[in-house]
Amino acid sequence: MVRHPAPMLATPGPAPADDDTRYAYEWKYDGIRCLAWISDGVCHMVSRNGNSLNAAFPEIAQALTSLAAGRELTLDGELVAPDRDGVPRFDRIGRRLGVARPSRSLIRTVPVCLYVFDLLGFGNRDLRTSNYLERREHLERLPFPHGPILLSPSYRDIPVSRMLEVAAEHDIEGVIGKRIDSAYRAGRSQAWRKLPLRRSAQVVVVGWLAGHASSEVFGSLLVAAHNDHGHLTLLGAVGTGFSDPTRHSLQRELHALAVAAPPVTGEIPRSITATAHWVAPHLVGDVAYRERTATGLRHPSWRGLRFDLSPAEVSIPERN
Question: Which residues in the chain belong to E strands, given as ranges?
Answer without folding.
Answer: 10-13, 23-28, 32-39, 42-46, 73-80, 113-122, 125-126, 149-151, 174-179, 187-196, 199-210, 218-226, 232-238, 258-259, 277-279, 284-289, 291-293, 296-298, 301-305
